[in-house]
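Sample pair:
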Amino acid sequence: MQLSFRPSAFRFLAFLAFVASLAVASPSMAQRMVSIASKEVNMRTGPGTGYGTDWTLGHGYPLKVIGRQGKWLKVSDFENDKGWVYGPLTGSTPMHIVKVKVANMRSQPTMDSRIVGKVAYGNVLKTLERRESWVKVQREGGLRGWIAKRLLWGW
């Protein structure tokens, strides 16, 4: 018995296959962020304690999850460095990191508002609120303010 499809039936089946592939791919395509929940975590060259340590990350450091193997997360940082961290040592507290030499922290989310402090490249900041092009953050010492989103990396 030979099957034959009308062109419209074939297009419909192709469309269903495409939609099904999107449904399967969508969860893995979504960007997932984590932050370091412990005081310090080793960023390793592979998914296990038997692998070497590239560097140590401090509390709050934000990372983008790009893979997983068991309880280990393959991650990327704001400089696009990649490595592995042990998943249970991370959390979901939204954080940002300064990606420019110096950024002004302002009292309001406008360029005209008063500067309340300055933060430097690599400083980790807790995310308090997000607006279209601004992020309200808090420095570890307690200082709060708004920074232009383009100067930060993270959630």
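The longest helix spans residues 7-29.
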